[in-house]
Amino acid sequence: MDETVQKSPPSAADSRPARQRAAREAAATPGAERVRVNDPDRTMANILQVATAEFADKGLAGARIDEIAALTSTSKRMIYYYFGSKEGLYVRVLEEAYRRIRQIESDLHLEDLAPEQALRTLVGFTFDYQLANPDFIRLVMNENMHRGEYISRSTTIQELNIPVIHAVHKVYQRGVGAGVFRPDVDPVDLHMSISALCFFNVSNRHTFGAIFKRTLEAPAAMAERRASIVEMIVRFLRP
């Protein structure tokens, strides 16, 4: 994987109105009503896209089904028909958020890389994905405020996260076998460390930057932080 840092995306506050406008325009195009009737998959995908921004921005309590319905030119009744309830829609949003990141992870083909390069690729991907998807970070933060109540209800999310642990375990075991990683690290703990370092970089950048007077969103700062996190994880595993 190319170790070049991705360009810092616009903040959720900047991108959310654009997503809302896009949803309105799509719904207002000729034939939109016919598409909604004849293409339920597309309708649900549109609802999930808008709901993701709403729940990430306002949380479960603050998000409103009326607003989601208006932004997708559907109705509350249709949303409840597809998802059962507001909580049902929220769980589906969480499921889709985890499905996206795990799907891309599965396409990294880590098994084709030497152990250390595979680890660097996985850490770099995690950093890049979380940086480019602040709504994912906000959804996870909101769900932690609910103490994981809704994630615990979803067997889908549990199943989606099994492959990433297997992938980390395989990379780690190959590294141990090759003598480049030490043999006393739990794969779940390793996954937690990777997630924690990359997560904090997005979740706390505004408060951290304000306290220590650093512009953490500058491309150069992001590139330096990315390289630092990758190197920390690699050195942590070395014998």
TrEMBL record:
It comes from the Bacteria. Keywords: DNA-binding. Residues 1-32 are annotated as: Disordered. Residues 41-101 form the HTH tetR-type domain. Pfam families: TetR_C_29 (PF17938), TetR_N (PF00440). This is AcrR family transcriptional regulator. It comes from Acidovorax soli. The lineage of its organism: Bacteria, Pseudomonadati, Pseudomonadota, Betaproteobacteria, Burkholderiales. The keyword Transmembrane helix does not apply. The keyword Membrane does not apply. Residues 64-83 bind DNA. GO terms for molecular function: DNA binding.
